[in-house]
Prior knowledge:
- By secondary structure, the protein is mainly alpha-helical.
- 81% of the residues lie in helices and 0% in strands.
- The longest helix has 26 residues, at 2-27.
Amino acid sequence: xxxxxxxxxxxxxxxxxxxxxxxxxxxxxxxxxxxxxxxxxxxxxxxxxxxxxxxxxxxxxxxxxxxxxxxxxxxxxxxxxxxxxxxxxxxxxxxxxxxxxxxxxxxxxxxxxxxxxx
Length: 118
């Protein structure tokens, strides 16, 4: 159950990053440093979800779909990678984090869909 809690809070952090990016995009104001803090928070929450999720297969409970492991690896990388791509300016950061956040939400949905015990 802890695994799902970390995943749910990760989704909340992604939603916050999307909201900040959207506001920054509409107003032209930089959402820094709060955007970076939300990205780091989301990353820590995904790492915690991965660590607690590894306990399932070690105990013999595998996810319903092996793609769950691929989606988890991508979920670790997507927002930090989007932030890296937007390192040139605040405007680029906001755009890339918006795109990365949408992809991240899709990954979290796929993780939820593939995570049932098989």
